[in-house]
Amino acid sequence: MKRKLIAAIGVATMIAGVAACGGDKKDDAADGGKKAEAKSITVWLTVDAQNNWPELVKAADDAIIAKHPGLTVKHEYYGWPDKNTKLDAVLATDKAPDVVEMGNSEMVGYMAKGAFAELDPSKFENSATWLDALKASTTYSGKNYGVPYYAGARVATWRKDIAAAAGVTTTPKTYTELTGDLDKIQAKNGDKFSAWYNPSRDWYAALAFVADAGGAIAKDEGGKFTASLSSPESLKGLNAWKDSVAKYMHGDLTKDESDRYIVYGQGKSAMIYGASWEGGSAADPKVDKTGGKLKDNLVSFVMPGPSGKQLPVFLGGSDLAVPVKSKAQDLAAEWINDFTNSKGQLGLIGKGNLPNNKTQLAPLKADPKTEATATAAEVSWFVPTAPGWGAVEKQKTLQDMLQQIATGKKSVEQAAKDADAAIDKVINTP
């Protein structure tokens, strides 16, 4: 599914007076101290739901209306690029929606600002087995402020025809096997070909090597976050990533991952590591420039890491949250549960998504069509849930560090040290 998480979180001016929440006191008095139930709720989702699974939205509406006759569920749909701008504006008023969809990496800044109401995980089906990275994305200072909606994993995808021409007939299971196979593919195709097209500014891929080596972007030390990209563990991961780029990436070293599937469709690379939809999108006749060779030759597999284990993935995906200014928080939470329960997750699986929980992920591992993505999703990492994480993303500190390393402008050690300094300036400031 072609959907890109928008990392920038513009929440600096939206939360004035945000602590005022809950029901109307006049309603309480009129009902003898019992809060009157809202007559309607407003749900904000992205156009993904509107275009790809409207029947699942309707099913959740029908379920809550059956329990609350007369309730009206209103929906508004937004594209990813403009959603947060509109959300920021409305959260500064008394007209906040009751449910809002957030990209998982967008959650941190809003939680830090107090924009979302705390939610009790026990009230949501499958919360005990939520995927690790999605659970982390809804947690701030030990409290839960959202419900995972769905997930998307990152996998390796390569062309079996190119691999076979280089004498490689099976997909690699270890990193040693992977690099050995890529060496053969690179040697066969020459230095104008990328055995692995790996854009240097793709921090989701590069930082997976850091996580694999036991490193982290930043560490929480008693409530204060300290950047740790220059730690020995992080440097080990960054060096492993640098080596792979130097050996197998012979494309533009200043690019990010946004058009990776388009570049892959040009036929000048054997492998990519990215979102699970990218291979299929590259094989689309509108994108494939190889004369149709991609369609029947793409194979996806779990990316092995240098540690000897599978490379931890940054899960793409969405969460659902209840703005603290919602006047119908209980109903909002109930709608979220109706939408994300096991039945709803089965519907999302049918649309090509991964579920929000490990229980329903397990059967997908037995299906050859979903085995790679489901297995990859089990081992994941997430960004620091720090007050200033949004500023780190907005400044593109990680992307700039990686480009400096890949192009040789700075050594790994110097680039990491400089990135740490930049991160430390903003990461603890809401």
TrEMBL record:
Keywords noted in UniProt: Signal, Transport
Pfam family for this entry, one: SBP_bac_8
Signal peptide coordinates: 1-20
Homology family: Belongs to the bacterial solute-binding protein 1 family.
Protein name as annotated: Extracellular solute-binding protein
Organism of this sequence: Streptomyces fildesensis
